[in-house]
Design brief:
Layout (H helix, E strand, L loop, with lengths): L3 E5 L17 H6 L1 E5 L1 H20 L6 H8 L3 H28 L2 H18 L13 H19 L1 H9 L5 H26 L6 H22 L11 H4 L6 H10 L1 H29 L5 H29 L2 H22 L6 H15 L2 H13 L4 H26 L1 E2 L13 E2 L1 H21 L5 H16 L16
Antiparallel strand pairs: 1-2, 3-4
Length: about 475
């Protein structure tokens, strides 16, 4: 057995009265402790690298769309489909992925995702004979499709990994690190793609630059991750896991009022952020802002989002105040979104727009990993993959609906002398009003209506007290964790 770090459950906040006996003996101390393993950091590292790599494959061509279209000899619409295929493929596969995570196991899911990610990256650089090397568009699309198949296998796993490998005071942080690796990959693609491929002839070199890390990560996942869970559980909920069968778990989730509300509000938030990232350049160029400035705003949005997620994850791990943290950040994020909807319609407000984009990312992006932990707390003992999977599907559906809606209400402009758009400019005034209204509505709905018990934390405290009671150091505890309904 691998040497582990001993982690003792913190029961200082347990409301159950403790019997004032003498200090427990060494044997009792061991029975009341959970062991955590250094190997958990390797599992987290592999997942972070894999999530980042998959995101870079997703956004490889968007920052260099013109060069890619010229090299592959296709239209810009065809280039856009290289990114859209991720969304198209991930929705129908999400249900199968949640079943696989909760039934087959974490290791098999991560390894399969790593191999699909690697095969997709390698397929994109396959071409004709060396003397006339040319990568066909169809082969690139096939590679993107394989990488898209890997996305649900990768993006659903942080919550499950955190529950199986990390103690209760590190779960939110581990989930945050695994989840935020995806936007970090988007940032890497936005920086690396234009830096490597400033000409069409350099597209093969760009694809090779993304394929090499994917191969290394696949090797690391296959060899480094040896089991789905550690030899001994890191927490009471992991030790006494009572995850429901997949279909039964989904039914319980859909009957859980708190979870359904979180599903709708967080899914709407994901849709808003997807629209923001997708349409940012088109919205700003109408008012004369350059593509470089739009790229800077997108980068600030992601960077400050990762910083905010890191800080909020550490805070929630220490305080366990999931609901309060999410409600406050969601409200501030909505205010930042409303401010952006006003400022983006004004000219020469570079500093203000950049600050608002930073705040939008700082308060908005940080919600996602903490909300995924909250989804487990309010739906325990349903499997973590099921709770995360349905929220991901909700986010993808909202993203498609919002993108179509905002583009449909945008109106073409007859002329706009200040426009820097490469295509015919559009007025986004109505679209921004709609986006602000949707953000405000779902934020108000969540802040006013949402409340839930922390069922997983309650179960862990109950199990801890039961263990102590069995050895004469704790008063009788509440009901068995397995009896707690989702």
């Amino acid at each position: 057995m691998e040497n582990g770090e001993v982690e003792q459950n913190d029961v200082s906040n347990d409301s159950s009265p403790l019997v004032a006996d003498s200090s427990p003996n060494e044997e009792l101390k061991k029975l009341l402790q959970f062991k955590v393993y250094k190997r958990r950091w390797l599992v987290l590292l592999v997942l972070c690298l894999l999530n980042c790599s998959n995101a870079t494959l997703w956004l490889t061509f968007a920052p260099v769309a013109d060069q890619s279209a010229e090299y592959l000899k296709v239209t810009l619409a065809n280039i856009n489909w290289l990114s859209v295929v991720y969304m198209v493929v991930s929705i129908p596969l999400s249900v199968g992925t949640t079943w696989m995570l909760d039934t087959v196991g974490l290791r098999a899911t991560i390894v399969l995702g790593a191999w699909l990610n690697m095969l997709g990256a390698v397929m994109r650089i396959c071409g004709g004979p060396p003397d006339d090397f040319k990568i066909p568009y169809e082969l690139v699309m096939a590679g993107q499709t394989l990488a898209a198949l890997a996305q649900p296998l990768i993006i659903f796993t942080p919550t499950k990994m955190a529950a199986l490998w990390f103690p209760d005071h590190q779960r939110a942080t581990a989930n945050m690190m695994g989840s935020m690796a995806n936007p970090l990959g988007l940032l890497v693609a936005n920086v690396v793609s234009p830096a490597i491929a400033d000409k069409a002839s350099q597209i093969p070199r760009l694809l090779l630059a993304y394929a090499v890390p994917a191969c290394f990560i696949c090797f690391l996942a296959t060899v480094g991750i040896r089991s789905s869970a550690p030899p001994t559980p890191p927490s009471a909920s992991a030790e006494f896991s009572t995850s429901e069968p997949f279909m039964k778990g989904v039914k319980l989730l859909l009957k859980n009022r708190a979870y359904v509300l979180l599903l709708l509000c967080l899914g709407s938030g994901i849709g808003v952020f997807t629209c923001f990232a997708t349409l940012l350049d088109q919205i700003l160029c109408v008012q004369g802002y350059t593509n470089d400035f739009a790229g800077l705003c997108g980068a600030l949005f992601i960077v400050f989002g990762i910083v905010g997620a890191a800080l909020l994850g550490l805070y929630v791990d220490k305080t366990k105040r999931f609901i309060e943290a999410i409600k406050i950040n969601m409200s501030l994020s909505a205010l930042a979104g409303i401010a952006f909807s006003v400022l983006c319609l004004m000219q020469r407000q570079n500093v203000a727009v950049a600050i608002v984009c930073s705040l939008f990312g700082f308060f908005g992006y940080s919600i996602y990993p903490v909300a995924m932990e909250l989804s487990v707390e309010c739906s325990y003992p349903v499997g973590e993959a099921s709770t995360a999977g349905l929220i991901f599907i909700s986010g993808q559906i909202f993203s498609i609906c919002y993108t179509v809606l905002l583009q449909s209400v945008a109106t073409p402009l007859a002329e706009s002398p200040r426009s820097t758009c490469g295509v015919a400019p559009q007025s986004w005034k109505v679209s921004m009003m709609v986006l602000a209204a949707l953000t405000t509505f779902f934020t108000a709905l969540f802040v006013i209506v949402f409340h839930t018990r922390y069922k997983r934390l309650e179960a862990e405290k109950d199990v801890t007290c039961r263990r102590k009671r069995d050895y004469g150091s704790c008063a009788p505890a509440g009901p068995d964790p397995a009896s707690i309904n989702a």
